[in-house]
């Protein structure tokens, strides 16, 4: 392994190769994911998106952004403070996402309806709160779409007492194709640098949203999508669309 193996061009080349591969190989799984999303929208459901750590970047890509679907809600561990009345100091615990009972509280705070779809995002797919959220959703009859690295999750032990991993619980799994540990470029002497899962996760999310929109349009239904608030009339138009989901989607400052 030489130092030449670590460079901006190498990362661009390697990551784009993975993106190209996903664009073709994930087509069927994306179609199935799109069906879950389209069915949720048709049923007046809300897409409940949840992830921790850097997986929250993919949640933000799905929930409440320009060009995205309006009936989307971002779930976050910070909801314990914002909506659950916990003191801010609770978030000082670096192992909070591994604590039992956290996901159940977040689920209750969101108060989802039966037709809501849960999109749970985790590269490893083994942290306690991630698995607990998927279990909580399944126990309440929701369908679950997972975005995870099958390579990573198959290489590590389950972290939840049930022995389950996120991929075991999902109705549809979108494999982000990230390597074990996420980092793409191996360093001389060991270790690796430059995470991949955000790039591939964004691609998978947007492919699924595009395909779901195509399915809705084919059925004569217009997808409820956000316009950028930074174009004339965008903010006001978005508020009008959000009225249909009043009390069910949260739009806090970020």
Describe this structure in words.
The chain has 254 residues and is an alpha/beta fold. Helix content is 42%, strand content 13%. The protein has 10 helices and 7 strands. It has helices at 8-25, 27-42, 56-62, 79-82, 102-110, 128-139, 150-155, 166-169, 197-218, 234-242, and strands at residues 47-51, 72-75, 117-121, 143-148, 172-175, 183-186, 192-195. The strands form 2 sheets. It has a 5-stranded parallel sheet with strand order 2-1-3-4-5, sandwiched between helices. A two-stranded antiparallel ribbon has the order 6-7. Helix 5 crosses helix 6 (128-139). The longest helix is centred in the C-terminal third of the chain and has 22 residues, at 197-218. It is globular.
Summarize the helices and strands and which ones pair or pack.
Blueprint: H1 8-25, H2 27-42, E1 47-51, H3 56-62, E2 72-75, H4 79-82, H5 102-110, E3 117-121, H6 128-139, E4 143-148, H7 150-155, H8 166-169, E5 172-175, E6 183-186, E7 192-195, H9 197-218, H10 234-242
Parallel strand pairs: 1-2, 1-3, 3-4, 4-5
Antiparallel strand pairs: 6-7
Sheet bearing the most strands, described?
5 strands, parallel
Question: How many DSSP helices?
Answer: 10
What portion of the residues fall into strands of 2 or more residues?
A: 5-15%
Low-confidence stretches: none
Specify the helix fraction band: 40-55%
* CA gyration radius, whole angstroms: 19 Å
**Count of DSSP strands:** 7
Shape: globular
Kindly, what is the distance between the CA atoms of the first and last residues, rounded to a whole number of angstroms? Answer: 41 Å
- Residue-averaged pLDDT: 95
Q: Walk across the major sheet and give the strand order.
A: 2-1-3-4-5
* Estimated structural class: alpha/beta
Order of helices and strands: HHEHEHHEHEHHEEEHH
């Amino acid at each position: 392994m030489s130092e030449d193996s670590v460079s901006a061009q190498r990362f661009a080349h390697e990551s784009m190769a993975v993106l190209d591969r996903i664009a073709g190989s994930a087509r069927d799984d994306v179609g199935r994911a799109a069906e879950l999303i389209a069915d949720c929208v048709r049923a007046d459901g809300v897409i409940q998106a949840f992830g921790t750590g850097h997986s929250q970047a993919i949640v933000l890509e799905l929930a409440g952004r320009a060009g995205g679907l309006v009936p989307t809600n971002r779930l976050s561990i910070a909801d314990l403070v914002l909506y659950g009345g916990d003191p801010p100091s609770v978030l000082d615990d670096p192992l909070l996402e591994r604590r039992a009972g956290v996901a159940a509280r977040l689920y209750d705070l969101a108060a989802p309806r039966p037709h809501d779809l849960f999109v749970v995002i985790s590269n490893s797919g083994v942290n306690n709160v991630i698995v607990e959220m998927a279990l909580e959703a399944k126990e309440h009859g929701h369908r679950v779409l997972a975005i995870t690295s099958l390579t990573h999750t198959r290489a590590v032990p389950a972290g939840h007492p049930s022995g389950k991993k996120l991929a075991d619980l999902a109705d549809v799994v979108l494999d982000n194709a990230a390597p074990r540990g996420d980092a793409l470029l191996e360093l001389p002497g060991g270790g690796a640098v430059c995470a991949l899962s955000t790039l591939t996760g964004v691609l998978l999310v947007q492919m699924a949203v595009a395909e779901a929109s195509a399915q809705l349009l084919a059925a004569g239904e217009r997808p409820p999508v956000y316009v950028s608030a930074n174009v004339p009339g965008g903010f006001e138009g978005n508020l009008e669309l959000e009225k249909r989901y009043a009390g069910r989607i949260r739009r806090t400052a970020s």
